[in-house]
Design a protein that fits this description.
Layout: H1 4-14, H2 33-47, H3 56-70, H4 79-85, H5 92-97, H6 102-127, H7 154-173, H8 179-198, H9 202-215, H10 226-231
Helix pairs in contact: 2-9, 3-9, 6-7, 6-8, 7-8
C-alpha cells in the first residue's frame, strides 16, 4: 500500500485545477455602500471647489471614467458589452443621487467575467506548450489599444491575447531565458494575476466607481475605501 502522504499527493495532482475553470463571483454592493455613496455625492455637490451641475454631461463623464478604469486597453470587454452599457451613459447621475449602485456593479461583473476568462485562456495556452506558438506569422500588435475599437467577438480577443503571450515570450527569450523557464515564469505570473482578480471584493468595486465619479469633478479628487485608507 502507498503511504497516506503519497496517496494524498497523487489525489491532489489528479484533481482538476479549479483556478483554471472557476467563474468570477458576482459581486453586489454592501449594505453600507448606498449610504456612503449618498454622503460622498452630497459632499462633492456642495463642498468641492469645482462646481458641477448634475445632468447628462456629468453622467457621461462618470461613465467614460469608469470604463477607462475598468478596461483602459480595450482588451477584455467586447463591443457588445459596451453597447449594452451605453444605456447607463446618461443615467448614472440620477442613480448616484438615489444611492443606486446597480449599474456600477453590473458593468464591473461583466468586466470581471471577461478578465477571468482571458487569464484562464492564457494559462490554458501556456499549458499546451509554448513550443506550439508560431513566430513565423507576419503580424503587428497594438501594445496600448487605448484608442482601438472594442473587440467584436471572442475570436478577436483570442488573437489579441495570443499576440500578448507571444510578445511576453519573445521579451524573455531576448533575456536568454530557456523555454522551460519562460513557461514556468509566465504560468506563475498569470496565475498570480488570476488569483488577485478572483479575490476582488465588493469594496474594491465601490472604490473604483466612486473614483470615477470623483474624477469627473477633478482628476486629483479620490475616494479611499477604509482598507485603502488604512494602508495609505
Amino acid at each position: 500500500d502507498k503511504p497516506a502522504s503519497s496517496a494524498t499527493a497523487a489525489a491532489a495532482a489528479a484533481a482538476p485545477d479549479r483556478l483554471l475553470t472557476d467563474p468570477a463571483p458576482t459581486l453586489k454592493p454592501l449594505e453600507i455602500h448606498p449610504r456612503t455613496s449618498l454622503a460622498i455625492v452630497e459632499q462633492l455637490r456642495h463642498n468641492h471647489f469645482m462646481s458641477k451641475s448634475f445632468g447628462d454631461g456629468l453622467s457621461s463623464d462618470v461613465y467614460d471614467n469608469y470604463l477607462e478604469l475598468l478596461d483602459p486597453g480595450r482588451a477584455y470587454l467586447l463591443a457588445a458589452d459596451v453597447a449594452r452599457f451605453d444605456s447607463y451613459r446618461v443615467r448614472l447621475d440620477e442613480a448616484l443621487v438615489r444611492g443606486e449602485l446597480g449599474p456600477a456593479y453590473d458593468m464591473f461583473n461583466v468586466f470581471q467575467h471577461r478578465q477571468v476568462e482571458r487569464l484562464q485562456f492564457l494559462l490554458a495556452e501556456i499549458g499546451r506548450g509554448l513550443d506550439r506558438l508560431d513566430f513565423t506569422v507576419d503580424e503587428t500588435m497594438d501594445a496600448e489599444r487605448k484608442n482601438a475599437p472594442w473587440p467584436v467577438d471572442e475570436a478577436e480577443l483570442d488573437r489579441i491575447w495570443r499576440q500578448r503571450l507571444k510578445a511576453a515570450v519573445l521579451t524573455l527569450k531576448l533575456s536568454d531565458k530557456p523555454l522551460p523557464e519562460i513557461q514556468e515564469l509566465l504560468t506563475k505570473r498569470y496565475r498570480n494575476r488570476l488569483k488577485q482578480a478572483l479575490q476582488t471584493k465588493s469594496e474594491d468595486v465601490f472604490q473604483t466607481y466612486l473614483n470615477a465619479f470623483a474624477g469627473a469633478f477633478d482628476p486629483h479628487t479620490q475616494y479611499f475605501s477604509p482598507r485603502t485608507s488604512q494602508n495609505f
